[in-house]
Amino acid sequence: MRRQHPARAGVSAAGVRRRRSRRPWTGPLGLYVHGTTPLHRAPVDVKLGALALLGVAVIVLRGPATAAVLLAIATVAAVVARVPARATVRGLLPVLVTAGVLGAYQWWQRGPAVAVEVGADLVSLVLAAGVVTATTPADRMLDVLERSLRPLRHIGVRPDVVALAVALMLRTIPALVQTVAEVRDAARARGLERDPRALLVPAAVRTVARARATGDALAARGLGD
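^ that's the sequence the OP posted. Answer follows.
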């Protein structure tokens, strides 16, 4: 029987332990950070309104100086909310990469001022949205969504069903991520990590099975119509 190299086995075991000890990603519904800061106590409507105003300001106001001020406001909000710095930076890494690519393109096409403005505006919006999510429980966010959709009941829209659909969608994202990770680990244990079929087929089967189980559960409760 083929024996695995000790050093490689040690690295693999260490990697498995790190993956097991790492806290699983719970998706958008799991970003809330318990706290008693003013932003935690602020009404959800006020926070969402402030986020909307920031989005309008990003579109209307021009110039790198204004973009820097908006980024500073979002940063101060994150500090006031006492969101974990390490988790925030880790979550912003893809956004920073995207902002860097967009900024480089804008620098090439329209100059450094526009590049700074575009990059700073993008980071400001994502950071501010992260602060709102980190200081607002998911159930309150969904309650606001349901209340805002109540006027549409006159045209046949059911606000409770829409809020339920949004909640299911947001909870499905981390479930899919976990499914892919489990399938990848199983394929790696069999030495098939480079075989696309060993990754795609089991992940697709488990995803479809989960969707059917969810649909059956909703239909059993009279929510499948």
